[in-house]
Design goal:
This protein has 3 helices and 10 strands, in the order H-E-E-H-E-E-E-E-E-E-E-E-H. By secondary structure, it is an alpha+beta fold. It has one domain. Helix 1 crosses helix 3. The protein starts with a helix and ends with a helix.
Length: about 220
C-alpha cells in the first residue's frame, strides 16, 4: 500500500470517529482533523493565533483568532445544535476574539481552493453575529460586522465554510474599518480528498489489513 493510499485510509477511519459535544473555544477542540502536519498538539488542525495592527493603545486592534478544521461527521457530533450545515467533507472554523480598543468590522480568510457553504453559528450566548458574509471574486471568505461591530472583550459567532480540500496554513485579515492585522490560519490547500465512496472502500481495506496483521 502506497504512502498516499495509507494516508487517505487513515483519513477515512478518522472521519468515522464520534466525538463528544464541546462548548467554548475552538483551540484544542476534541475531534479536530489530524494528519500530523497541523499546528496543534500531535499535528492536529486546531489552535489560536494573534492579530495586531501594530499601533499603541488607545489606537490598537488586537486579539486572537481560534480555529479548527474538522471532518463533517466530527463537526456534526461536536456541535449537534449548530445551525450551520457543511456542504463538503471538511469544515473550516474560526472565531474572532477582540482584546483591543478598536472594534472589529470584518474578518477575511484567503481561500486558494474550492470552498462552499459559508456561514456562521452561535456557540455561546453573547457572541456577535456577522451581518453579511460570502465569497468574493478574489477567492476570499468575508464576514462583515456592521451592526453591531465586535467590541472590546467580545467574540464573534463561530465562522465557517466547507471544502473537499485538505488544510494548509494560509492567511486571514482582521479589519477595524481603518486598519488591519494579519494572522496565520488554516485554509484549504490544493490536495483534495477522495469521494465518499472511495473513502468507504479505503476504510474497509485499511480495517481488513489491520485484522490480518493481528492474526
Amino acid at each position: 500500500m502506497s504512502t498516499k493510499t495509507k494516508f487517505f485510509a487513515f483519513l477515512a477511519v478518522f472521519s468515522l470517529l464520534v466525538v463528544p459535544a464541546q462548548a467554548g473555544d475552538l483551540d484544542g477542540i476534541a475531534g479536530a482533523f489530524n494528519d500530523g502536519s497541523g499546528p496543534g498538539v500531535g499535528g492536529a488542525w486546531t489552535g489560536s493565533t494573534t492579530y495586531n495592527n501594530g499601533l499603541a493603545v488607545p489606537n490598537n486592534l488586537f486579539g486572537t483568532i481560534d480555529y479548527a478544521v474538522m471532518t463533517a461527521g466530527n463537526f456534526a457530533a461536536a456541535f449537534p445544535t449548530a445551525t450551520y450545515a457543511s456542504g463538503a467533507a471538511m469544515v473550516y472554523l474560526y472565531q474572532v476574539n477582540n482584546s483591543g480598543t478598536f472594534s472589529v468590522s470584518a474578518e477575511i480568510v484567503n481561500v486558494n481552493a474550492s470552498a462552499n457553504s459559508i456561514g456562521q453559528f452561535e456557540n455561546t450566548v453573547g457572541e456577535v453575529a456577522s451581518s453579511l458574509f460570502g465569497f468574493d471574486s478574489g477567492n476570499k471568505a468575508i464576514w462583515n460586522f456592521a451592526s453591531p461591530l465586535i467590541g472590546t472583550g467580545q467574540s464573534s459567532y463561530v465562522l465557517a465554510f466547507s471544502s473537499n480540500n485538505l488544510p494548509v496554513l494560509g492567511a486571514s485579515i482582521t479589519v477595524d474599518g481603518g486598519t488591519f492585522g494579519v494572522s496565520s490560519v488554516p485554509t484549504p490547500g490544493t490536495v483534495s480528498i477522495p469521494e465518499p465512496a472511495s473513502l468507504a472502500l479505503l476504510s474497509m481495506g485499511f480495517m481488513a489489513l489491520a485484522v490480518r496483521r493481528r492474526r
